[in-house]
């Protein structure tokens, strides 16, 4: 016991973080789960690096390009950035907890983060939330250090530069990083001692760096009719019935699963203490960053709908808040056990299921994970058809089919027009309403100029609206794959003689 007590909090934090990260990387290498359509789409973006994409800023594509450049295009390498970035998030929270109290609080912040069930889940997929959270945690640390080192210009300029870079990169991960500006505004409105940053060149440096990093993405959006910004409005879905209390209750209930029951209750309790003027300065800073995204998305859920992950930026600083509570003097050790223990057990259980898939397939897990299987088998059925039609471009009916086949037939197909010397056949998408709704429809929509005769892969139950736009139509196959009770079906056609787009509204 004395030996354990002599281990520094930093080493304990590193042991937890590195141990679980290595286990998750091993689980990714062992799993038989295929890429989800969204993951396959992000991979395809990484094949054509840019400063923006239709639904998201570019950082997710850059992260995938970095990991696949090191270890190849297998599913594990496509997803490898997620456990690595969560490890970086945990260590940034260690730094924030240490700054606000001591290394012991920092260690528990890192441990709490790396054991959260939602972190265990998102470590095993590739998503835009993961780089966003890493940038958010680093920005929260760097902002706090900047504010605390006002009288040490050399250090505060360095931390100001880190804060500006973290905010800018966070905006390139997901525009939800803008909640940080709201949180900082709330903090400064309520804490006079930190308002010096508004009059200081170091505050201007933070803003200038963030804007400079975001600027290429803004330029990309301007060139593409602000497609990503418009997509945010579509997600908000503020149409139809605008008062849905049950949606708000459901969203808040989901947050107990995202952050864990005890941590979410502690967050609510300390928020109530803040409202009564009983929070410490450290808690006020953490809550100012945590509560705005949670409040805004709860209102969004009340007005329309909200996904459980839309408020994830609440939880990096909330994890530090809970760590401060867990390490309060006199706090019983059992609270730490009952907070972290169930999370760790749930995360390890999920990792075991993923790593052993499909050798071990628990019934409920099989139904939930079934959509992460089947496309590789479908690609094996599509390949011989393409091999018999080597000169024909491919037309697809929808985004998910196009993304999955681009990935699982990556040696045979390429998105849009191939570069000179590339022998793969191009894949296009049919934009049925001439209104881009995804990145492929924005940049790879078929308009007749890409080839008169094509192989058409249709995921629609009734593809006649598309088929009617061609003079010659021949069905050559019906393909079907059933995996764990879920079926995927494609009809394959040889089509020619494009008549023009579907006529809408008449």
From TrEMBL:
<dbReference type="GO" id="GO:0009103">
    <property type="term" value="P:lipopolysaccharide biosynthetic process"/>
</dbReference>
<dbReference type="InterPro" id="IPR050297">
    <property type="entry name" value="LipidA_mod_glycosyltrf_83"/>
</dbReference>
<keyword id="KW-0808">Transferase</keyword>
<feature type="transmembrane region" description="Helical">
    <location>
        <begin position="309"/>
        <end position="326"/>
    </location>
</feature>
<feature type="transmembrane region" description="Helical">
    <location>
        <begin position="112"/>
        <end position="139"/>
    </location>
</feature>
<keyword id="KW-0328">Glycosyltransferase</keyword>
<feature type="transmembrane region" description="Helical">
    <location>
        <begin position="251"/>
        <end position="273"/>
    </location>
</feature>
<dbReference type="Pfam" id="PF13231">
    <property type="entry name" value="PMT_2"/>
</dbReference>
<keyword id="KW-0812">Transmembrane</keyword>
<protein>
    <recommendedName>
        <fullName>Glycosyltransferase RgtA/B/C/D-like domain-containing protein</fullName>
    </recommendedName>
</protein>
<feature type="transmembrane region" description="Helical">
    <location>
        <begin position="159"/>
        <end position="190"/>
    </location>
</feature>
<keyword id="KW-0472">Membrane</keyword>
<feature type="transmembrane region" description="Helical">
    <location>
        <begin position="338"/>
        <end position="360"/>
    </location>
</feature>
<keyword id="KW-1133">Transmembrane helix</keyword>
<feature type="domain" description="Glycosyltransferase RgtA/B/C/D-like">
    <location>
        <begin position="56"/>
        <end position="220"/>
    </location>
</feature>
<feature type="transmembrane region" description="Helical">
    <location>
        <begin position="202"/>
        <end position="220"/>
    </location>
</feature>
<dbReference type="GO" id="GO:0005886">
    <property type="term" value="C:plasma membrane"/>
</dbReference>
<dbReference type="GO" id="GO:0016763">
    <property type="term" value="F:pentosyltransferase activity"/>
</dbReference>
<dbReference type="InterPro" id="IPR038731">
    <property type="entry name" value="RgtA/B/C-like"/>
</dbReference>
<feature type="transmembrane region" description="Helical">
    <location>
        <begin position="285"/>
        <end position="303"/>
    </location>
</feature>
<keyword id="KW-1003">Cell membrane</keyword>
């Amino acid at each position: 016991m004395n030996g354990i007590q002599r281990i520094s909090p930093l080493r304990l934090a590193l042991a937890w973080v590195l141990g679980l990260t290595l286990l998750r990387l091993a689980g990714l290498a062992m799993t038989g789960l295929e890429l989800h359509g969204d993951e396959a789409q992000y991979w395809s973006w990484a094949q054509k690096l840019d400063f923006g994409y239709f639904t998201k800023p570019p950082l997710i594509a850059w992260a995938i390009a970095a990991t696949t450049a090191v270890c190849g295009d297998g599913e594990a390498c496509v997803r490898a950035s997620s456990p690595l970035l969560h490890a970086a998030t945990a260590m940034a929270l260690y730094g924030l907890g240490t700054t606000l109290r001591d290394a012991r609080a920092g260690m528990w912040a890192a441990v709490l983060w790396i054991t959260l069930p939602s972190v265990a889940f998102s470590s095993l997929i590739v998503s835009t939330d993961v780089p966003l959270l890493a940038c958010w945690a680093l920005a929260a640390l760097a902002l706090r250090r900047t504010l605390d080192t006002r009288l040490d210009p050399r250090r505060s300029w360095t931390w100001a530069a880190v804060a500006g870079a973290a905010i800018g990169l966070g905006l390139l991960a997901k525009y939800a990083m803008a909640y940080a500006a709201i949180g900082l505004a709330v903090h400064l409105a309520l804490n006079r001692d930190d308002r010096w940053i508004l009059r200081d060149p170091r505050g201007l440096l933070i803003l200038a760096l963030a804007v400079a990093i975001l600027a290429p993405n803004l330029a990309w959006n301007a060139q593409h009719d602000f497609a990503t910004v418009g997509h945010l409005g579509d997600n908000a879905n503020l149409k139809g019935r605008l008062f849905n209390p049950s949606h708000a209750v459901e969203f808040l209930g989901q947050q107990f699963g995202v952050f864990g029951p005890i941590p979410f209750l502690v967050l609510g309790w300390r928020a109530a203490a803040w409202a009564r003027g009983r929070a410490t300065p450290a808690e006020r800073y953490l809550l100012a960053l945590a509560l705005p995204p949670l409040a805004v998305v709860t209102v969004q859920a009340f007005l329309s709908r909200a996904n459980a992950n839309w408020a994830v930026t609440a939880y990096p600083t909330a994890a530090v808040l809970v760590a401060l509570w867990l390490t309060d003097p006199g706090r019983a050790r059992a609270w730490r056990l009952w907070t972290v223990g169930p999370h760790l057990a749930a995360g390890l259980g999920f990792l075991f299921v993923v790593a052993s898939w499909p050798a071990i397939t628990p019934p409920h897990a099989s139904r939930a994970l079934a959509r992460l299987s089947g496309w590789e088998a479908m690609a094996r059925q599509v390949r011989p058809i393409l091999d018999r039609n080597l000169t024909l471009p491919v037309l697809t009916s929808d985004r998910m089919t196009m993304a999955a086949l681009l990935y699982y037939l990556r040696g045979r197909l390429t998105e849009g027009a191939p570069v000179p010397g590339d022998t793969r056949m191009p894949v296009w998408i049919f934009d049925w309403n001439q209104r881009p709704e995804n990145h492929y429809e924005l940049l790879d929509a078929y308009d007749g100029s890409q080839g008169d005769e094509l192989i058409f892969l249709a995921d629609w139950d009734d593809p006649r609206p598309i088929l009617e736009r061609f003079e010659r139509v021949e069905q050559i196959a019906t393909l079907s794959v059933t995996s764990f009770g879920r079926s995927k079906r494609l009809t394959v056609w040889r089509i020619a003689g494009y008549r023009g787009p579907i006529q809408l509204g008449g």
